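Tutorial, part two.
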Amino acid sequence: MDSHPVSTPTRFVATQSVLTLDTRHPDVIRAMTDVHDMHRLVMSGYRGWVPEGEDDARAQMGVLSAWTVNLRTQTLTLITQARVTPDWTPVPRAALLEAPHLIKVDQAIKAGDTFTFRAFINPIRAVKPTAGLQKGQRGRRTASNSPHQATEWFTQRLQPQGEPATGPNGIKRIGADADPARISTTMLPPLVSTVKKGLKVVRAEIRGQLTVTDPTTFTSTLTEGLGKARSYGVGLLLVRK
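Running the prediction step on this input gives:
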């Protein structure tokens, strides 16, 4: 008997970009050291799709991004994804080590599909006070700074077969399940702001294999991202069959 009941297949459609940047270029240095400069660098590729000044421009276009750095090769790899096609001509040519690579994604998604994945997350958890929560009170948000805590954050959002899209405490699940023992987690350098005092975005990269259990929810996760701080280089889930 099929362990994955018949469900309506969905499609994930997006345009992804891979930019290989020189970490010695001033614009790239600023982007690495300030979360707002990195956000401006990402959004520079999506001008004209949304009127200037709109607060939710990123969400309207579905822009997600993630980046990693190799200081030995002096390379920053920036990955972006959106519902619309970017134009990277605003990025200085001297900052690019090679031409931007655009990938058109049009992927059918159905229950039982398996994918290898990379997820870039901001593992924030709510800590309850020792005296317990009062009515209407929320726990204090604190960053998960260890691979174990980041892995736990991610596995809480897995969605086993037959489970609803919303888990305990209102946690939004991702529409797929995985074996926690086969997940690997790497903590990435946190993102900080030189303007907004105290702003710090903790990041982790999760890798493993996912099995789709809820195609609609999984496609939404791929399109919208997961977790908080999606304007600041986290929330992107990349998959490959």
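The domain at 109-130+139-240 is CATH 3.30.70.1210 (Alpha-Beta Plaits). In part three we will examine how such features are distributed along the chain.
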